[in-house]
Write a structure and sequence with these properties.
The structure is a homotetramer of 196-residue chains. Chain A has 196 residues and is mainly α. Chain A has a single domain, classed as Orthogonal Bundle (Tetracycline Repressor, domain 2), CATH 1.10.357.10. In chain A, 73% of the residues lie in helices and 0% in strands. Chain A has nine helices and no strands. The first copy, chain A, is elongated and about 60 Å long. The termini of chain A are far apart. In chain A, 38% of the residues are buried. Chains A and B meet through α7, α8 and α9 of A and α7, α8 and α9 of B. The structure holds a DNA duplex (21 and 21 nucleotides).
DNA sequence: AATGAATGAGTATTCATTCAT
DNA sequence: CATGAATGAATACTCATTCAT
């Protein structure tokens, strides 16, 4: 299995770094190879082509990202706690890897439709976790019954994503993890006051 | 003023069409020129470079987009109504111009960081409208007092944006305007039930 | 019509020269462009791709080559004279353009099957001329009746081609035109003596 | 002596097959190695480089080819019979090995000048046999005295070669051996009728 | 103002060959 | 002897931009 060989991970990590530092369009294969400490041709022993590096990068990193979120959320009791943990873990992981945050929030979005389709496929696993927490919340009577699952998913993911993107575009100058509680509160209770 | 000359608008409309039909990366200047019915060189009498076409396109179209939203919302009484009108008008306008929806939600995001910074600058005007409605809602005691303006803005914009993007990626196969009320409800009341 | 523009011919002549001097595989597009005095990109305003330069080169040069042979042979009376004129004109023209001789006899044969198919298509016109002369010879009772046209064509063309190739491979060190009469005699009378 | 080791012949036979099936340019060393059932590196224990495989292939196969022709012709009495046998054996051998026919008539000609020089060196032995038969024919007064040996050689070889190449290019759809007698007749008697 | 022919910088990928095991 | 992972040189083509007319 190529994915377990050290050079596979070396190249992916080099790609994250090169893309974060140079931007998507200035990230030539030769630059990634150099940073990974391998010859240009070696890249093609581990990846089909340049796009395959990027897709694999996303799968690899997002796979871990999602696994971690899944692991953290399942250890919580209520749906409300799970949702808070999901938001916190989402923010924490990106805060812990500045390069990865830049790559996922800004650079990889410059890719073409084709690559974005593949990225969305990976994200599907994440959306499933969100769906399940919402379902649990409804069962626990914490959340309203008649929620449109798709819209809820879009609100939760859209809010987190927009929050992270803004933070990255502001050069990560503030602590995004501090905002998790407030984001959670907005998602659970909305804008309206308690007497509404 | 070049912006009032007919060819200026001709070129921008051609660009929207060409990008929507061919995708961002397959939209060469020569293709836009051909669709606009002008020579390649003529483009450069009206725009500094290719990026300038895209920025101008966004300014022009988003300017109208935002003006319309501003006009519709000001005619409403309460912040809650204004917010609903904002969401409805946002969805309606993109539903009314399929080409523009594709270009703003998918294709223009493939541009580089630099262009996206300029796009964000244009969006600033939109975010100001959102902020003002939130402020009004707080004053009217409809919304909670201690809301973090930036987070609220990100929730509102992020939710709408994610909703529209999903609709475009699903080839606009359902009526997005139908979802405005539910999106509004989620933003105002969140996931929690009334007894929470 | 692009074929009448001066740069079209400039590029083709440059290609002949570059290929003759450097060999097929060392003839990069950029080298041809430089020799032609145009930018690399200009090549692609006149030719679809590299192969198209080579096909066009062959069509252009062989077109003239065949026209000349056709013109010279039609002015002769008998089939025997026509055949001699054909051989002489074939040899003369290649002797007059050393570069072209190298390109057609050696370098262009290194091309792939696809290009060679196209080259053969051009040669069809030449083979038609040969066929017609043979037909005339048979009618005039100069040649045998029961000749297999395809084999005759292959003998005539194969003999001339092998003769020219040998001459080119020997660096064109002798005068090939001097051999036309003897080649003609071999083709018409074969190896056998008069008493056979 | 490496040439007697089994892998030497294995690799050469694999090369013939791979080149015939994939074409010269799509015949990578790794493909030949795979077909031969050896590692890429092993190729270089038996051959200096890729060109050396091709030269050796030609030497090996053409050596047998020429030996067979030599053996068959010496058992004939007259030069005329020997020539017919030569043509027949030439055609028979290529008809019996379709792969080899493709490789020698089409694919190997795509090689560069350098390799073709070496191939010509191998063919020298064949041309010597032709020369000797012609000499015998002249001595026997079957052939004319004043024949230019080189031209005769070129006529005989050129005609056979062109005939075989045409047959291969027509996907070997007819029986080339059937044409040996007629080719022989053309070479011996030429186009002219008996009364010429 | 308008044209469009010409420019030329920039880059992913292949594959013959090597050499540590 | 044999392996096969690693190497790295080499090249056609696109397209935003210019500028002479």
């Amino acid at each position: 299995m190529k994915k377990n060989k050290p050079k596979y991970k070396q190249i992916i990590d080099a790609a994250v770094q090169v893309i974060a530092e140079n931007g998507y369009h200035a990230s030539q294969v030769s630059k990634i190879a150099k940073k990974a400490g391998v010859a240009d041709g070696t890249i093609y022993l581990y990846f089909k082509n340049k796009e395959d590096i990027l897709v694999s990068l996303f799968q690899e990193k997002m796979g871990q990202f999602i696994d971690k979120i899944e692991h953290e959320t399942t250890s919580r009791q209520t749906a409300e706690e799970k949702l808070l943990t999901l938001i916190e873990t989402h923010f924490e992981q990106l805060a812990a890897d500045h390069h990865l945050a830049i790559v996922t929030q800004l650079e990889l979005r410059q890719s073409n439709k084709d690559l974005r389709q593949k990225i969305n496929h990976v994200l599907k696993g994440y959306l499933d976790i969100i769906d399940q927490i919402v379902d649990e919340g409804v069962e626990e009577k914490l959340f309203r019954e008649n929620l449109d699952r798709r819209l809820v998913r879009q609100m939760i993911f859209g809010t987190m994503d927009e929050t992270v993107t803004n933070w990255v575009m502001k050069d990560q100058r503030y602590n995004i993890v501090d905002q998790a509680k407030e984001v959670h509160s907005l998602i659970v209770h909305g804008l309206a006051g308690p007497h509404q």
